[in-house]
C-alpha cells in the first residue's frame, strides 16, 4: 500500500521480534479522507449539515493536528498489519504496539514467533494400559436405579427414612421475620437434596405423621439470597404424609418393560454391562491419552515468547470468568469461595498456558519428526465421512468446509489425531522404528489477525 516509510526488524531472545516503524505525514494520506469524514459526521457547526462541512472549515475549527490524530487512529491497524505481513509473517498471537517517538512518528511493534519445542527421547515413552473391568456391584446399582425409577410411591405408616417422599407444611423465620410460609410441600428426603439449605433433610429423619418440629440452621455466607446469607434461620415443619418406593420385582416381565424391551433379566444385565464397559472404556482411553501427553510434555523443552504466554494466560482467565458469569458468579467471588488469592490464580493460569503451548507444539514437532502428513485425500475422506453420517446436512457440511480457513483447521485437527495415534503406538511399545519415505511437513498454524492492535502513549504530531 506504500504507507510505511521504514521498517527495521530486530530479533529478540525467547522467540520474539521487534519491528520499528517510522512514519511521516505523507504516510497518513490514505486515511485522511476517512478522518475528515468521521470528524465531519460528528461535528456540530452552525450553517453546515453533518457530513457536509468543507475540509478547510474542519481544519480551522478542530485543527490539522486533531485530524491527523484521527487519521492515525483509523490507519494504525492497517499500518501494523502490513508491517507484520511484510516483515514477520512467521509470527503468532497479537502484537504489542507502542508509540515511542512523535517526530518522526515511530512505532515499536513487539510480537512472538511460533514457539519451538525440543523433544528428549520421546521414543522411550512407555505408559502401561490398565484393563477395564466392570464390577458386579455397578451392574446391580444400575438395576436398582431402574427398579426405583419404574416403581410407584406408596403411603407408609412409619418414621421418615432416607429416599422417602414426604409432604410438609413449612414456616421459616430469620431474625423473627417470616421469610417463608408454605403448605403441602412435596420433598424428597435425600442427602443430595440441599434445598432450602444444606443439612435440612437430616432434621426430617425419624419424624412421624402429624409431628411438628422446630430447628435452626445457619445459611452460608455465599447463599444466593443475600438478605438471609450468613444468618440463622428457624424452621418449623409439620409432617403430613410419608411415601416410599415399592420396588418392582426383578423378573423377565420387568425386563420386557425397560427401553425397547429385553426377553430376560439376563439379557438386560448383559446390555447394562456392555453400556457400562463402553462408557468406562471411553473414560479410560481419555485418561490414558492424557497420561501419554503428560509424559510427552515432561520430555519437552519449550521456547516461547512471553507475549504469547501472557496472551494464552489471559485467555484462560477470561474463559474461566465467562463460565462463572453464566452461573452468576464473578471471578472475585469464586476466588473468595475457594480461598485463593488472585496472584495464586494468575500463576496457576500461567502454568496451564505454558503446559498447553508445550503440549501443542510438542505434538507438532513429533509430527515433523515422524513424517506425519495430511493429504488432500485425507481431508476429502473426513468430509465425506461427515456427510455420510449426516446426509440431511450435506449442503451445510460442504459449505462449512468450502473455505481455506476451515480446511486448514480440519487439516490441523486430523494431524493432531494422527500424531496422537502414533504417540500411543510408541507408548504401547508398538513399531517404534522410524517411518521411511514420508515427506516431513509441519502443520501450519492459523495465525490470528492483527488488525485490532492498539497503540499506547502519545498521539501523533505533524513532522513537517
Q: What is the number of domains?
A: 3
Going by helix content, strand content and strand pairing, the class is: alpha+beta
The main pleated sheet reads as: 5 strands, antiparallel
**If you compute it from the alpha carbons, what radius of gyration comes out, rounded to the nearest whole angstrom?**
33 Å
Individual helix count: 12
Summarize model confidence as the mean pLDDT.
Answer: 87
Question: What proportion of the residues is helical, as a percent range?
Answer: 40-55%
β-strand percent reads: 15-25%
CATH fold title of the largest domain = Trigger factor, domain 2
CATH architecture of the largest domain: Orthogonal Bundle
Kindly report the name of the CATH homologous superfamily of the largest domain: Trigger factor, C-terminal domain
Q: What is the global morphology? A: extended
Low-pLDDT ranges? 434-464
Topology order in helix (H) and strand (E) letters: EEHHHEEEHEEEEEHHEHHHHHH
Extended strand count: 11
Main CATH class of the largest domain: Mainly Alpha
How far is the N terminus from the C terminus?
22 Å
Amino acid at each position: 500500500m506504500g504507507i510505511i516509510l521504514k521498517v527495521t526488524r530486530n530479533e529478540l531472545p525467547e522467540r520474539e521480534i521487534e519491528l520499528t516503524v517510522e512514519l511521516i505525514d505523507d504516510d497518513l494520506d490514505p486515511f485522511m479522507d476517512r478522518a475528515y469524514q468521521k470528524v465531519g459526521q460528528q461535528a456540530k457547526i452552525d450553517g453546515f449539515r453533518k457530513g457536509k462541512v468543507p475540509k478547510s472549515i474542519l481544519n480551522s475549527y478542530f485543527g490539522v493536528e486533531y485530524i491527523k490524530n484521527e487519521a492515525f487512529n483509523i490507519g494504525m491497524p492497517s499500518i501494523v498489519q502490513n508491517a507484520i505481513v511484510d516483515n514477520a509473517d512467521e509470527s503468532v498471537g497479537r502484537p504489542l504496539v507502542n508509540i515511542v517517538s512523535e517526530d518522526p512518528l515511530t512505532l515499536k511493534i513487539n510480537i512472538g514467533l511460533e514457539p519451538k519445542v525440543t523433544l528428549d527421547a520421546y521414543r522411550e515413552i512407555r505408559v502401561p494400559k490398565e484393563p477395564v473391568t466392570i464390577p458386579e456391584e455397578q451392574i446391580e446399582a444400575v438395576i436398582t436405579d431402574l427398579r426405583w425409577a419404574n416403581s410407584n410411591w406408596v403411603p407408609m405408616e412409619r418414621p421418615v427414612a432416607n429416599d422417602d417422599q414426604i409432604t410438609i407444611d413449612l414456616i421459616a423465620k430469620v431474625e423473627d421475620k417470616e421469610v417463608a410460609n408454605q403448605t403441602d410441600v412435596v420433598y424428597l428426603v435425600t442427602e443430595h437434596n440441599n434445598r432450602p439449605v444444606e443439612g435440612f433433610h437430616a432434621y426430617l429423619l425419624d419424624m412421624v405423621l402429624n409431628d411438628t418440629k422446630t430447628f435452626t440452621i445457619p445459611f452460608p455466607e455465599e447463599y444466593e439470597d443475600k438478605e438471609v446469607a450468613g444468618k440463622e434461620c428457624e424452621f418449623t415443619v409439620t409432617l403430613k404424609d410419608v411415601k416410599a418406593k415399592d420396588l418392582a420385582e426383578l423378573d423377565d416381565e420387568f425386563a420386557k418393560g425397560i427401553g425397547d424391551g429385553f426377553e430376560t433379566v439376563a439379557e438386560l444385565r448383559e446390555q447394562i454391562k456392555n453400556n457400562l464397559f463402553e462408557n468406562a472404556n471411553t473414560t479410560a482411553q481419555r485418561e490414558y491419552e492424557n497420561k501419554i501427553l503428560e509424559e510427552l510434555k515432561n520430555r519437552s523443552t519449550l521456547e516461547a515468547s512471553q507475549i504469547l504466554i501472557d496472551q494464552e494466560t489471559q485467555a484462560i482467565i477470561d474463559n474461566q470468568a465467562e463460565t462463572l458469569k453464566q452461573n452468576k458468579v464473578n471471578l472475585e467471588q469464586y476466588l473468595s469461595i475457594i480461598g485463593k488469592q488472585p496472584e495464586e490464580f494468575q500463576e496457576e493460569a500461567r502454568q496451564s498456558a505454558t503446559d498447553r503451548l508445550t503440549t501443542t507444539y510438542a505434538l507438532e514437532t513429533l509430527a515433523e519428526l515422524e513424517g506425519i502428513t495430511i493429504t488432500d485425500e485425507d481431508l476429502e475422506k473426513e468430509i465425506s465421512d461427515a456427510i455420510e453420517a449426516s446426509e440431511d446436512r450435506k449442503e451445510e457440511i460442504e459449505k462449512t468446509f468450502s473455505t481455506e480457513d476451515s480446511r486448514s483447521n480440519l487439516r490441523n485437527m486430523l494431524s493432531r489425531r494422527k500424531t496422537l495415534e502414533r504417540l500411543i503406538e510408541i507408548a504401547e511399545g508398538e513399531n517404534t522404528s522410524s517411518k521411511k519415505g514420508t515427506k516431513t511437513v509441519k502443520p501450519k498454524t492459523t495465525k490470528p489477525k492483527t488488525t485490532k492492535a492498539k497503540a499506547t502513549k502519545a498521539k501523533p504530531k505533524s513532522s513537517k
